[in-house]
Specification:
- This protein has 214 residues and is of the alpha/beta class.
- It is 44% helix and 10% strand.
- It folds into two domains: 130 residues, 3-Layer(aba) Sandwich (Rossmann fold); 75 residues.
- A six-stranded parallel β-sheet has the order 3-2-1-4-5-6.
- The radius of gyration is 18 Å and the shape is globular.
- It binds magnesium ion (MG).
- The site of magnesium ion (MG) has 7 residues, from loops.
Length: 214
């Protein structure tokens, strides 16, 4: 079985939302540096968490909500089109998911695949035999029982077992502690925080097929 993290892994090659949102903001004519932008972005994150009904928002609605909270917090936000920023972010994310759908299609023929939460709106749910949704299971990462829950699903081949994710602390460390092989999707500037893990590092999720075949 190959288990995937969703956010940052299936929808981006290890790039954080703030980094990708900044790129969309610059593409729409925004002028601020990442440092200044990131302060406003963190504030918008906190405001987003307080928004009622946030857990029921779909992917596009979530992007629109974050854009609406972000722009008033940027000095040049009033002159920018929220629609242009949200469209840019949405289309660049969908392009990555679409590319990864080809990888999932390939792996799906050799492995059972699992995902720790995924958005139905993105159209890749059909590749997964098991979805470990924290909200439904009642366990959140980095609790390794969330991974155990996925691996112990009846009828699924769980050996070999891999965990693929972009967050060292919540994806990689707990999966390695359970004895899973781990693939960490992160920029090279990020250093592993424990010797011996991960099993492999990935620059792009597309490299995963070669790793599993070798
Ligand atoms: Mg992630």
């Amino acid at each position: 079985m190959v288990l995937f993290d969703f956010g940052g892994t299936l929808d981006a090659d290890g790039a954080r939302w703030s980094v990708r949102f900044h790129a969309a903001y610059r593409a729409a004519g925004g002028k601020q540096s990442f440092a200044a932008f990131d302060r406003a972005f963190r504030e918008s994150d906190r405001a987003l968490e307080r928004l009622s009904g946030i857990e029921r928002l779909g992917f596009r609605a979530m992007i629109d909500a974050q854009t609406a909270l972000l722009l008033p917090r940027l000095s040049d936000g009033a002159g920018l089109s929220p629609r242009a920023i949200a469209d840019q972010f949405h289309s660049s994310t969908c392009a990555v998911v679409h590319r990864n759908a080809a990888l999932l299609e390939l792996l799906h023929s050799s492995y059972h695949l699992g995902v720790v939460y995924c958005l139905e709106e993105l159209g890749v749910m059909r590749y997964f035999s098991v979805v470990a949704d924290s909200g439904r299971v009642g366990i959140t990462k980095p609790d390794p029982r969330l991974f155990q829950h996925a691996l112990s699903c009846p009828g699924l081949v769980s050996n070999p077992a891999w965990m693929v994710g972009d967050n060292f602390e919540s994806d990689i460390r707990p999966a390695a502690a359970l004895g899973l092989s781990t693939a960490w999707l992160a920029p090279e500037t990020e250093k592993p925080r424990e010797r011996g893990i991960p099993t492999v590092r990935l620059k792009t999720l597309s490299d995963l097929a070669g790793v599993l075949e070798s």
